[in-house]
């Protein structure tokens, strides 16, 4: 009887090859463990997107990667995030770029008053802007994704209906949003979101300027009974990974994570936009919050106070050697594209 060693050998080789190919992902469940640091409390959107990312990465790597999340600044605080990840104190970290305005010049240009209408548009535009310019500020880390908040509005203990009302009012913001508060005449107090609940409670500030989902997530609606709609500017965020830890990941895992960059930006923006709506519904219904809309003439006067900000940024950024006009034009173009 004649045997067919060739066919059997081929089959064996195919089986071996397939086993080998499938091995890096899934063979040793949980063999790669990554820490992910975040600065605000768990119910806030930066942590919601973190948990979503964790779940998806663990699933898509068939359990080869397990991620331990640290919300609430338990591993790294708001302003230590970038340097902490570079130093390897956390493998991954989520940071708000507005907290270090001089450090992330290119990406922080998205927090100029350029009319980004919502978080989905802002997130996709910011991510494209990052990929196009590959700013030097991120050369020491692997950037996993970026996203933005929805536009900022004023949450305050007393009503802000006019520029007169806001003069000298102690309001909290950071980065580009802080420049805007200043231009309107508020006494801008800079601090991360994670420090704001205490500052509001102690009366250090009379309100804040940020996206409105925190009315519910941080219960600001309990003390801030007024919201003035300005829809001026977003806060930009980045998720960064320690470069050595990134380079040590198997290529299959790197691919899963890289393929999620744009998707995660869009998911987070979409979640944020919906959550702002939910938060304001709750604030108005359950917390009797008064939502103040500026009439067209007032809104125009407020906007006019901001016109110098972008011009000044262009002059300053150009002096530092950045292609400032191109950056602004790209943000405007991307905003239109994703709107
Ligand atoms: C923010 C930061 C942490 C948790 C929830 C948040 N919603 C909006 C922001 C934007 C921001 O960083 C800030 O400081 O207003």
Compose a concise summary of this entry.
Helix content is about 50%, strand content about 15%. The protein is α/β, with parallel strands linked by helices and about 350 residues long.
Q: How many beta-strand runs? A: 11
CATH 2nd-level architecture of the largest domain: 3-Layer(aba) Sandwich
CATH top level of the largest domain?
Answer: Alpha Beta
Whole-number mean pLDDT: 94
Instruction: Write out the strand line-up for the largest beta sheet, numbering strands in chain order.
Output: 7-6-8-5-9-11
Give the end-to-end Cα distance, rounded to a whole number of Å: 72 Å
Given the C-alpha coordinates, what overall shape results?
A: globular
**Which distinct ligands sit in these coordinates?**
3-(1H-indol-3-yl)-2-oxopropanoic acid
Question: Topology of this structure?
Answer:
Layout: H1 5-22, E1 32-37, H2 45-60, E2 65-70, H3 81-87, E3 92-96, H4 105-108, H5 119-133, E4 141-148, E5 153-156, H6 163-166, E6 170-173, H7 175-184, E7 187-190, H8 196-202, E8 207-210, H9 214-217, E9 226-229, E10 236-242, H10 243-247, H11 251-259, H12 261-287, E11 290-293, H13 296-304, H14 307-319, H15 324-338
Parallel strand pairs: 1-2, 1-3, 6-7, 6-8, 9-11
Antiparallel strand pairs: 3-10, 4-10, 5-8, 5-9
The structure holds 3-(1H-indol-3-yl)-2-oxopropanoic acid.
